[in-house]
Amino acid sequence: MEQLPELTTERLILRGFRLSDAPAVHLLVGAYEVADTTLNIPHPYTENAFTEWIATHAEGIERGTDLSFAIMRREDGVVIGGIGLHINRRHNRGESGYWIGVPYWGQGYATEALRRIIAYGFEEMGLNRIYAGYFVRNPASRRVQEKAGMIFEGILRGDLLKNGVYEDHGMCAITRQDYLDSPR
How many domains does the chain have? Predict the structure, then answer.
């Protein structure tokens, strides 16, 4: 895989991040609320963090194991978030993670993007299972996953360390068979 495909939904375009996205991403992930609800986004988010992060994308894309998409609104081309799929070929599964900028919360964008990533994972990547985690203190993320067709699997207590605090980690997943059996 040389580059990411452009994936579309009714309201969104999912495409590879570009250096020109730096100002929008810095503004959105610079919000404490975004960093607080994600495992790997630091706060404060420095201006160099995006450039350093995007430099890692080419290798993950070439290996076909780490795919990071910008979430962009179709109507105006504004970048509103990001979504990724980390693929483990040995077990033929993928882990998705996502974030949406605070001004765009509660509008169904995360669910729409996750549904598209799930379809891509099963239909184009041939995966058997896609899962996602969330901090239990962030039930909105669980709702996103369930609305996207994932099934709640459980809670790993004290599983993740974020800012010096052990967090309970909820898990949802969908299998290829679940996907094939669901109405689309």
Answer: 1
